[in-house]
Write a structure and sequence with these properties.
The chain is mostly beta strands. The chain is 13% helix and 42% strand. The chain has a 16-stranded antiparallel barrel with strand order 1-2-3-4-5-6-7-8-9-10-11-12-13-14-15-16. Strand 1 (80-95) and strand 2 form a beta hairpin. The longest helix has 24 residues, at 2-25. The two termini are 41 Å apart. The relative contact order is 0.14.
């Protein structure tokens, strides 16, 4: 009996391994969506999309390639799901910054997910492997010089592994545990409405982007760790996790130091994170609602959280004798602080819709994070904004939004600016207006405009004694789901 049962299991595992290796080697890769297009807004909870069908017309199917000539149904028989997207954009700086001009950049994403119930008879398990193929040129690096970087998909050109994890659901789905290589921006600190926008800081916010070692385990990086999630009540969910403290240790560009995404590091401290999520008017189990499964009240999600990294962090201003690092008599060795931390809060709230069945709605979001200024470049970051779904009749899947991203430079970094006689950095604010137009279920085109006030927080990164002119960026992004 054992021998006969093991044969099909081994065969299936071989199929999955071969497919995963082939998919990643083909040069594409990532999770089911682009990194800065995370969970659906609260008013979309409970809405289910229909699976693609090869017989469906190209204009109405969910994926450009439909069932890929029968590949998707064949994979589904073995519990496997394959997804791929291509996000391409052209952004141009029309004034200020480092230089006028534009740049193209793109991200091919691919993921293979396996339901272990279908594959191996193991209930509640999910295996996920994803990767990234990043291409193009970063307009923020070469043309802007801003702290609020213009695009959430900007990164060094490479083909890399992104996430590799196993998740097990327990206690009838009330608890699940995920183990492996993970990117925190997929679950923690997320504002669903904010992910409508293109600017990086509406996704992985300013505080973790600049303060965590290597920018933290977030796109395009990830880190080994364990995450547990528990639904404490229909409205209250808790997430906790512990991850390696630095996804790309060493001196230099973190994305070059871990260019393949296969640096499975556990030797650089630990990052601890916890988050509580409270849902207002969430869909109730078994509730059908008026044709959509949504409750009659206006839904919202409120989150509070904190993270702590137990590594040592260099003081931006003072050396190990208490002198300014700008002083000629300084030792040049920065004072070290034990650990780093941040507290944050996130709110997504639908504030209007004509009725529970209507696609049109208006939602608002806010997110704020703080960190100590004696060991961090950024001591405060915040986002606020408003998003309207289905702004025009007949455009049920379009979205239009207006958002603001703010970062404040920490007190010790500002102090070193003054000590060096440079322009003293303060804060920077970016305002973004965007419109997502769904051409077909598998194709979205997004027009975007961003204006940054006090660019570089008041300092030109290439000439620190000088200020940087405000920037104005316009562009278009297109996302195709294959």
């Amino acid at each position: 009996m054992l021998k006969s049962a093991a044969g099909p299991v081994v065969q299936r595992l071989a199929i999955y391994a071969a497919f995963a290796c082939g998919a990643l080697a083909s040069g594409a890769a990532s999770a089911a969506d682009t990194p800065d297009a995370a969970p659906q807004p609260p008013d979309a909870q409970g809405v289910k999309t229909q699976p693609s069908d090869e017989s469906t017309g190209i204009a109405t199917r969910q994926n450009l390639f439909g069932d890929i000539g029968g590949l998707r149904p064949w994979l589904d028989r073995y519990g496997a799901t394959f997804a791929m997207t291509e996000t391409s954009e052209y952004l141009a700086n029309l004034r200020g910054g480092l230089a006028r001009g534009g740049a193209y950049d793109g991200l091919t994403t691919m993921t293979l997910s396996i339901d272990t119930q279908k594959a191996l008879g193991l209930p509640g398990g999910t295996f996920n492997v994803s990767g990234l193929q990043i291409h193009g040129r970063n307009v923020s690096q070469y043309n802007l010089g801003t702290l609020n970087t213009a695009s959430g998909i900007e990164a060094d050109d490479t083909t890399r592994l992104w996430e590799l994890w196993y998740q097990q659901s327990l206690f009838d789905g009330r608890v699940d545990v995920k183990v492996g290589q993970q990117s925190l921006d997929q679950e923690f600190m997320v504002s669903s409405y904010a992910n409508t926008f293109v600017n990086t800081m509406f996704g992985w916010a300013g505080v973790p982007s600049y303060d965590l070692p290597s920018g933290g385990p977030a796109y395009p990086l990830s880190a080994l760790g364990v995450r547990a999630r528990a639904q404490l009540s229909p409205s209250l969910t808790a997430l906790v996790g512990v991850f390696d403290g630095n996804p790309a240790p060493g001196a230099g560009d973190p994305q070059r130091l871990n260019g393949s995404g296969t640096n499975f590091n556990l030797h650089n401290g630990a990052l601890y994170i916890g988050e509580l999520q409270y849902a207002v008017n969430p869909p109730q189990e078994g509730e059908s609602g008026p044709a959509t499964g949504r409750p009659s009240g206006l839904p919202g999600t409120y989150k509070i959280g904190l993270w702590y990294n137990n590594e040592r962090f260099a003081d931006p201003r003072f050396d190990n004798t208490g002198q300014s690092l700008a002083s000629p008599s300084s030792t040049g060795s920065a004072a070290q602080h034990r650990g780093d931390y941040s507290f944050y809060a996130v709110a997504d709230q639908t504030v209007w819709r004509p009725n529970a069945d209507a696609p049109r709605s208006i939602g608002v979001f806010a997110r704020i994070m703080g960190a100590p200024g004696d060991r961090n470049l950024i001591s405060l970051s915040a986002n606020v904004g408003v998003v309207m779904k289905a702004p025009f009749k007949g455009r049920d899947n379009d979205s239009v939004g207006l958002g603001l991203a703010y970062v404040k430079v920490g007190s010790h970094a500002r102090g070193l600016d003054a000590d060096n006689g440079n322009a003293v950095r303060g804060s920077e604010t970016a305002v973004e207006a965007t419109y997502q137009y769904q051409v077909t279920p598998w194709w979205v085109v997004q027009g975007d405009a961003q204006y940054t006030f006090n660019a570089g927080a008041g300092q030109n990164p290439n000439a620190p004694a000088q200020a940087l002119r405000n920037t104005f960026v316009v562009g278009v992004r297109t996302t195709v789901t294959f």
